[in-house]
Amino acid sequence: MDKNLLRALFRCIKGVPFAVTYWDDHTEAFNVTEDKEPVVRVIIKEKIYLPEMFCEPEVKFGEAYMDQKIDIEGDLRELFRLLIQNEDVFKRDVHKQGLLQRFMKSQKEKTVQEQTENVQYHYDLGNDFFKLWLDSTMSYSCAYFKSPEISLEEAQRQKIDHTLRKLQLKAGETLLDIGSGWGWLIIKAARDYGVKALGITLSKEQEEETKKRIKREGLEGQVEVRLADYRDLCVEKNTYDKIVSVGMFEHVGKQYIPAYFSCLGKMLKPQGLSLLHTITHPTESPSNPWMEKYIFPWGYVPSLREVIWALSEFSFHLIDVESLRLHYAMTTDHWAKNFEKVTDQVRERYGERFVRMWRLYLVGCTTSFRCSGLDIHQLLFSKGLCNDLPLTRDYLYAD
Fold first, then answer.
1. Catalytic residue among 12, 234, 263, 365
2. 132 with 87, same domain?
3. For FRET with 191, which of 8, 38, 108, 145 sits at 20 to 30 Å CA-CA?
């Protein structure tokens, strides 16, 4: 009976040819033609309890792979593409509604302390872990590829340049970076533009590494990093000429989006510029439950319209919006390939289950940005009207 139900499910999946090997070693192929062989094979090593799988398909499939109850042969990205293209086969309306209700309830229940702990859960895995597969800038956000042939490190440096140019920094200005990561942006801003920069992070590992980098660059007194939440900083009543946030907004949470922009309005000087770099959904929707459970607890990816709506509520004026969707697909491609080169080292430290978990995460990201509508945007906006800005975007691309 279990095999017959699975077979009926697999027959509903349309797209590239794929094969399935069941727990009794019987193999079947789907979507095959005379000139198209399976591009990926799913090996089901144990019987699957289908009611549980249909109740939480993302979580249960991910856990089955992590626990080696399911194996994948071939290109994992092709399997993710199939799953994304056939999402409605796995998710019934009742499942979607229940997921949304549970997600919204969890968003409202989380405290600020729990948010901090959840950020540290991911970023405090250890600097040594991230150094294994990130580039030397330790940039853990979308890169900017002026051409597809360039290296990841060059693309990350281009992203930082592109971001800083948008902010139109001037010597002597103050810059706040909310969620400053490992600090390369604030270091470059101070070194190349002569600003005084402050970065804040909730990760102890990131704070320690950034302090070392600042000292190596000889920028003490000009660049500072602090272990702090943006809400704590807001209470201090200091103001800044420019504020940037790259890859942090996804940790704010749906409930706290108004609080974020309220704090931003208090910390940004009149006519000051702010750049927000964030992943976005096409519409408001809950986070992927597997990602929320294993990778980014309590995260929330907002819709683009949700962010733009919030801007106007706090007297921010939108200047520029740019989608970097394919840039992030290329970035995560590099990360996934780099990760595969160091799986032996990761496995030795964290175990096979962790390796499989991060493989799913990285490959799932690169496929989602290409196929699912998941996007990433940079939004540039000012506090109040600012009439002294360039009339064109030429300044972004000048040598």
1. 365
2. no
3. 145
